Write the structure tokens for this entry.
Amino acid sequence: MAEGSLEAPTRHPVPWQDPEFYDRDKIDAEMRRVFDICHGCRRCFNLCDSFPRLFDLIDESETGELNSVASKDFKPVVDACTLCDMCFMTKCPYVPPHEFALDFPHLMLRYRAAEHREGKTGFFDAQLAKTDRNGKLASRVAPLANWATRTGNAATRPAMEAIAGIDKRADLPEYQAQTFDGLAKKTTPEVNTDAPAHGRKAVIYTTCFANYNHTQTAIAARAVLAKNGVETEVIYPECCGMPQLEQGDIADVAARAKRVAAELRPWVDKGHAVIALTPSCALMLKFEWPLLVTDDENIEKLSEATFDIPQYVVDISKDEGLADGLTALDGGVTLHISCHSRAQNMGQKAAEMLRLIPDVDLAVIERCSGHGGTWGVKKEFYDVALKVGKPVARQAVKAGKMYVASECPLAGMHILQGMKEVEKASVKIEHSPHPVELIARAYGIGA
């Protein structure tokens, strides 16, 4: 057995349909095995709050070793994991094919899956994860929904905190009265037939966030692709299930994967690429779904055809070349590379994409923002989320650029909040754009 590992990490399928997957004694034995190795290594100390919690738990125990830590005290370690995958992808020297075969995020998922099967998923947590239902309802009354969820609303936010556990200080995304799939049925951008990449075809998998909350990203992405000769179809059957995965509801995620993959398969067979507009969703389609459903050809084909939007634009630039017309942006860009972009193991595609803009003044931050999906807005974790994201906020303030962009829309919001609250900076930026929105702006087709 070699010490550490220089080989590429290998992810094994998640055996969630095996009854032993939910056996509490077996879960506890595996957690003790993994935690003991983590305790002896500690290379991941500066990632999410799971590891400081684990190491403090052991260090403050009677013997200073794992043998004097009660299993009931493991739960705070599990709760702090955001399933960002950074420990597996960037830090841990003991992931498969190493003999130790550590997969910390999927072990946390296993623990949560057992909790979910035991009925321990909180009611409001489950409701918060129903993004499609929430988006459809809120978009119909968008002004009222946005008024109710606005930070500083003394009439509603304290009640949301008391009842649903959503911290009253946390900025929440707004809803749009017109969803993107609704807009797409009314208008189709003209495809540039003179573009070098003309002839490409793609399906835009809008994702729930770009569909209901931040349609600007979807509008910009489709416009940029049309400018570059790409004919697009907008297909959004339903959410990818990342919120449900965070809660351990693996059966729900697997069912979604089968339904969405079946609907997208005909387009894949016709040669369309599938482009996801949010990195968490691209990660699900590319990597997580095939690990949860191993016997579905539709999911396998979809995984092979899926691109993250910056990845696809960079692919055009390298293969055919981008359409002419990009012009410089004033004021510079601070770009945050999201954890779920990094977990796709494709390199800094958003940075590569923005460097295609002439004379771009670009600062890149590759570190966790601390948000973690719905995790960072909860009363229990909000302060921890700001603490984890403080180095990112500090770097963004120091960079002093006009734009602070992130591939992850929730991370972008959280970074701006950290800049204001943690760094006490006088920040005039009110919106963190997706990098593709800046490409659209550089083309003169963005607001």
The chain has four domains: 19-117, 123-164, 180-319, 333-443. The mean pLDDT is 92. Residues 180-319 form one domain. The two ends are 57 Å apart (CA to CA).
